[in-house]
Structure to design on (1238 residues):
């Protein structure tokens, strides 16, 4: 299990990085934390001509508080955001999901943006970004664009990033209503979730529900009630619409049943969450 | 001075291992010019190899060879197997591949990185064939045949009958039947296989370093495959090994492969297996389907048993297979006093990786059937599960007890162990927890499992596979020799070598305890050197570390060698101290007079005498430089004419009791409480014993709830990474309350039995019983994953 | 901008256990292989090469990371610490190592160096961990021998001893 040969570049400026991406296009892969990419390289499941190591670009290693959003640069590790002193206050949902992302040792190197870029269907950070209606910043020599999370992740491991684009940051909106809850079911703690469920209170009596593991990407729905049969019906309808999928660890039916069991609990937890 | 044996002294092994100074196979220096191998493996479960084109790979700089099965066929022979069938396996596939991951070619290059690059340039054309994955399907006459010359995939069927099962069934009040399955899994050690081989063309000899674990009955298999006599295959085992659990027996085909690569290239060759290869193709426990049926009285007494065991060994039968089907044979009635039993043992081949040794070795499969059946008897007769267990246990007064199929249970008090478990382990508390959970509508169940744990296998047990007539022709097979040597050097320092391979069991420490006790020294005074070298160490076919042979075997040999050495030293000391030998004692680092302790000399001074001053030895005494003890207990007899076999030397007892709850949200099985009672005779080092039992418990949990090698119906392997093959982390292992009872074995001088496999055997059955109790179902499959629990709950209408 | 062609062997310099070290290697070389085969630090073990087992965990600028998911070139100019750095020069075990021996927290010892390095980092950040904290960090390591009980006890003892100093 050794990687194939590749050229290695380690830019110190974003402009250098996007110049390499412009030159190599889909033959380049961006290396930030490498916690998914290196495993794929070792297994020879990825075959880049050049690896663009952005981990030493100082400009990308920043957490910026814009007041209504928090910008997390592409070199910021999951550990660093988890240790950011204002995280629980500003982004309670992100604070709730981060301990479920991999393990201490992989969070020390794995990045927030890397997890978004990898776009696993049941991964926690893309789910948090989606339910918060966050943004992904993409830069290339053609310019900079910002995509809503829902437009960015298209399907399982598939995103709207063009080959010459670098994710420079993601923006997590800061919500005024801080009542949130998160739960996931995984075979073991630290594994990718089978089903992950997040809930945000949206003013009086409504809730936004985010679900991972039922389709190729995080799914977000607004539900007009927070308890009782109307909530359960809405969740069941969501489960039926999304169908779920089969893999080694869960059948589609089990994913649907898990959603129907978990979502009311998570919604209730969000509802009761002391703001 | 109180004896060291029996005390929890800290391990001698640890300081080096904790400081990064271990000497594992991949850490050791390699000869100058060593090349690196990479194995190309079959992507098909079943296919003919049409063509292998290695030209592009060979044209690459740094590539020395691409070796194929056709190359090996010319210079090696297929591996020997106990079962004589036309199933031939070389160390690379010849003409046909029979499982995904089967080695097809070996690339040898200057580095592993280069070898993997070159492997991608080797073009192999296959003609796919239909594959058969399911063990039952493989028996059907229309199934694809893996080895056409064998004409069938069911390559062995043996029927055994003990007592009068037929009339017991005729007079029984009831019959209870059950079908159980045991999955494929491996206790995947953290260190994978490593082989470094050299060939000496002048002598025609091979020198191979490998993290092989034994049994060394496999050494002749390797030597024969290489077409050399035993001494021309010098096999060296490194001082440290990163775990084994049975799995590192199966490095042996790679020992032969890399040895041949060294011969072909004329250079030393090293191969370090990677994790992807290990999961895909290293080894697996065999999967088994058991049809079991009991003839019972109204009150749950078992009069007779019938077992039809179908075991799936994958694509090839490899030595010493089909061991798991026969290792428990003498003890097939488990902890119960059952006089009549019929057994059918079937060996089937399928398009999966070959199965082999694994901790528990046949025990988990047997007890899944037997212990699940006992629960079914209770349910079908409307009796209490525990009452049925108690009613059938072998009574203490019958010890030593000859089981129906031939095992001689050396000692034990099973009823007392069960009573202690339910009392000290607080069965009443478990029942309260169950009742409270059920009152709240939750799914909670209690399980039990009683297990007889064999240790130190009779090397003749596998010959039970042959008919009595075939055994007569081949000659009797039996016994198990253990060997330890105690040496004294010119400075009077003591060193010990033994016929075990290191895997982490703390043998260095326990051997030091045993020898230090006899010589009146401290454990730190005893140098234990356990790396093995078949050219220079003492060994026999039983050597190695497996089937818990250390405590009933090697430890005894150490005790014997050290006590003989002590006797000699007493003789030498008597002459030097001018006292009678009976008055000499070895204590506190001195050799001294028992009656007058001031009349003493340092141990080293008297012990060194043999080297420097043989003239000072008592008349007629050989110098006390070295004592080798061979321990070969007479109870390990060959199978009798009527197929009774004492499969092991000692038989410990484990009784488990647990409560589990099905998580109301997630379908996960949560172990609420787990209690495990052990009787393993005398305990040599309680700390190390506890570590072995907890390790086995964790592997039992792994088998019960997490680990499985999965294949698609078409034969694709689905468990190829640690993201798919789930090894429990600390958060998945529940606490276990350990209880102990000590009934010393009368058959070993130290009174100790094996104890490191029992929980591998008991935990899957105990948890399956608890799940069955929680959900009210009969068919519980392990690992009991949320996916399976979900399906069960759907099926039972929730 | 550092740029290395795929077949180019470059000298990679780093600090290993407090000393400047270097060796020539290719960009694709994993840090785990570089430490073991180029620098001879064989105390770092390789168990899976896809980041799950934790055997290869080392400290990179004081932070516990998987060396199999790190390229050697990524460690260029940085501080690497491995298990060989833990004991005193005379071989005396540190508090963490000693706790492992006291609690029989290792059997084969293959996974142990990675666990020691994880907690060398973690106990510095959180000197008063709860048992739940310890289990959470330990869940990034696989051990096949012990069933983890001894490891948890050892880590609790080590945390107490380090804290009480």
């Amino acid at each position: 299990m050794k990687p194939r040969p590749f050229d290695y570049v380690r830019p110190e400026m974003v402009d250098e990085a996007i110049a390499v991406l412009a030159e190599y296009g889909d033959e380049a892969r961006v290396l930030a934390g490498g916690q998914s990419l290196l495993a794929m390289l070792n297994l020879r499941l990825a075959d880049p001509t050049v690896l663009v190591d952005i981990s030493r670009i100082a400009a990308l290693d920043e957490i910026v508080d814009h007041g209504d959003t928090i910008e997390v640069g592409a070199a910021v590790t999951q550990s660093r955001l988890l240790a950011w002193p204002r995280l629980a206050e500003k982004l309670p949902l992100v604070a709730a999901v981060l301990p479920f992302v991999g393990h201490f040792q992989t969070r020390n190197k794995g990045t927030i943006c890397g997890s978004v870029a990898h776009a696993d269907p049941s991964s926690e950070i893309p789910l948090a970004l989606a339910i918060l209606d966050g943004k992904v910043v993409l830069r290339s020599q053609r310019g900079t664009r910002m995509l809503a999370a829902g437009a960015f992740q298209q399907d399982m491991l598939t995103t709207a990033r063009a080959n010459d684009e670098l994710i420079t940051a993601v923006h997590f909106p800061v919500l005024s209503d801080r009542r949130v809850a998160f739960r996931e079911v995984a075979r073991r703690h630290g594994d990718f979730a089978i089903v992950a469920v997040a809930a945000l209170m949206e003013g009086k009596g409504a809730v936004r529900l985010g679900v991972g593991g039922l389709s190729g990407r995080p799914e977000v729905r607004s539900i007009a009630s927070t308890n009782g049969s109307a909530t359960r019906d809405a969740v069941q309808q969501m489960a039926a619409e999304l169908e779920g999928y089969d893999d080694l660890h869960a059948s589609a039916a089990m994913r649907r049943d898990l959603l129907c069991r978990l979502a009311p609990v998570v919604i209730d937890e969000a509802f009761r969450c002391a703001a | 001075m109180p004896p060291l044996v029996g005390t929890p002294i800290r391990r001698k092994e640890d300081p080096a291992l904790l400081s990064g100074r271990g000497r594992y196979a991949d850490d050791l220096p390699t000869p100058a010019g060593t090349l690196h191998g990479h194995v190309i493996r079959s992507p098909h479960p079943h296919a003919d190899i049409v063509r292998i084109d290695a030209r592009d790979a060979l044209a690459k700089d740094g590539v020395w060879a691409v070796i194929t099965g056709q190359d090996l066929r010319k210079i090696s022979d297929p591996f020997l197997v106990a079962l004589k069938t036309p199933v031939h396996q070389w160390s690379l596939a010849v003409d046909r591949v029979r499982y995904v991951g089967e080695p097809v070619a070996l690339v040898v290059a200057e580095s592993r990185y280069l070898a993997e690059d070159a492997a991608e340039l080797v073009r192999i054309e296959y003609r796919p064939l239909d594959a058969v994955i399911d063990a039952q399907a493989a028996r059907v006459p229309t199934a694809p045949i893996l080895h056409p010359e064998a004409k069938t995939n069911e390559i062995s069927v043996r029927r055994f009958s003990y007592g009068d099962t037929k009339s017991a069934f005729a007079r029984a009040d009831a019959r209870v039947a059950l079908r159980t399955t045991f999955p494929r899994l491996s206790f995947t050690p953290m260190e994978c296989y490593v082989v470094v081989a050299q060939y000496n063309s002048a002598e025609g000899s091979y020198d191979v370093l490998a993290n092989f674990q034994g049994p060394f009955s496999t050494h002749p298999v390797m030597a024969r495959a290489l077409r050399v006599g035993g001494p021309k295959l010098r096999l060296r085992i490194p001082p440290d090994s990163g775990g084994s659990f049975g799995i590192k027996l199966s490095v042996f085909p790679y020992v032969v492969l890399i040895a041949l690569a060294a011969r072909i290239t004329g250079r030393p060759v090293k191969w370090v297996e990677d994790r992807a290869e290990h999961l895909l193709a290293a080894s697996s426990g065999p999967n088994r389907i058991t049809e079991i049926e009991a003839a019972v009285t109204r009150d749950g007494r078992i009069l007779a048993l019938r077992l039809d065991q179908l075991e799936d060994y994958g694509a090839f039968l490899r030595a010493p297979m089909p061991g798991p089907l026969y290792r428990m044979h003498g003890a097939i009635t488990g902890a119960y006093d059952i006089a009549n039993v019929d057994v059918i043992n079937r060996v089937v081949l399928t398009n999966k990786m070959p199965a082999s040794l694994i901790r528990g070795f046949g025990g988990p499969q047997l007890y899944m059937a037997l212990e699940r059946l006992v629960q079914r008897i209770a349910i079908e007769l409307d009796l209490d599960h525990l009452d049925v267990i108690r009613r059938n246990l072998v009574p203490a007064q019958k010890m030593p007890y000859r089981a129906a199929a031939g095992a001689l249970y050396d000692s034990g008090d099973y009823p007392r162990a069960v009573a202690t478990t339910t009392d000290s382990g607080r069965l009443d508390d478990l029942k309260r927890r169950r009742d409270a959970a059920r009152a709240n509508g939750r799914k909670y169940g209690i399980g039990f499992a009683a297990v007889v744990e064999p240790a130190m296998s009779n090397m003749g047990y596998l010959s039970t596979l042959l008919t009595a007539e075939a055994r007569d022709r081949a000659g009797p097979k039996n016994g198990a020799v253990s060997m330890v040597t105690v040496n004294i050097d010119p400075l009077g320092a003591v060193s010990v070598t033994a016929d075990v391979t290191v895997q982490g069991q703390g043998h260095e420490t326990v051997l030091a305890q045993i020898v230090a006790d006899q010589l009146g020294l401290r454990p730190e005074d005893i140098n234990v050197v356990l790396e093995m070298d078949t050219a220079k160490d003492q060994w026999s076919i039983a050597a190695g570390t497996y089937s818990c042979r250390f405590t009933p075997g090697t430890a005894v040999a150490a005790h014997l060698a050290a006590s003989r050495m002590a006797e000699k030293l007493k003789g030498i000391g008597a002459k030097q101290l001018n006292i009678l030998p009976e008055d000499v004692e070895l204590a506190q680092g001195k050799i001294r007079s028992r009656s007058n302790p001031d009349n003493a000399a340092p141990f080293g001074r008297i012990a060194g005498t043999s080297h420097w001053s043989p003239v000072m030895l008592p008349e007629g005494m050989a110098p006390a430089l070295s004592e080798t003890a061979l321990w070969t207990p007479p109870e390990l007899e060959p199978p009798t004419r009527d197929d009774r076999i004492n499969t092991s030397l000692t038989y410990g007892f484990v009784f488990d009791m647990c409560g589990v709850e099905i998580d109301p949200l997630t379908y996960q099985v949560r172990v609420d409480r787990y209690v495990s009672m052990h009787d393993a005779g005398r305990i040599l080092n309680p700390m190390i014993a506890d570590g072995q039992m907890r390790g086995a418990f964790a592997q039992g949990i792994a088998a019960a709830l997490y680990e499985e090698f999965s294949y698609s119906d078409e034969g694709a392997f689905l468990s190829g990474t640690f993201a798919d093959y789930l090894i429990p982390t600390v958060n998945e292992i529940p606490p276990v309350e350990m209880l102990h009872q000590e009934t010393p074995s009368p058959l070993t001088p130290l009174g100790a039995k094996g104890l490191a496999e029992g929980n591998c055997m008991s935990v899957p059955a105990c948890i399956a019983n608890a799940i069955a109790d929680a959900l009210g179902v009969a068919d519980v499959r392990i690992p009991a994953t949320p996916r399976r629990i979900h399906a069960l709950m759907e099926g039972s209408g929730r | 901008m550092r740029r290395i062609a795929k077949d180019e062997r470059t000298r990679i310099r780093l600090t290993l256990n407090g000393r400047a070290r270097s060796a020539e290697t290719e960009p694709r070389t994993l840090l785990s292989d570089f430490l073991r085969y180029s620098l001879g630090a064989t105390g770092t073990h390789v168990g899976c090469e896809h980041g799950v087992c934790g055997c290869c965990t080392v400290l990179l600028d004081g932070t516990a990371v998987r060396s199999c998911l790190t390229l050697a070139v990524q460690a260029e100019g940085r501080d690497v610490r491995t298990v060989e750095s833990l004991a005193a020069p005379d071989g005396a075990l540190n508090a963490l190592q000693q706790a492992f021996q006291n609690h029989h927290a290792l059997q084969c010892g293959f996974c142990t160096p990675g666990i020691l390095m994880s907690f060398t980092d973690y106990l510095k950040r959180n000197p008063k961990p709860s048992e739940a904290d310890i289990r959470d960090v330990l869940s990034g390591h696989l051990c096949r021998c012990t069933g983890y009980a001894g490891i948890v006890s050892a880590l609790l003892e080590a945390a107490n001893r380090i804290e009480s100093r």
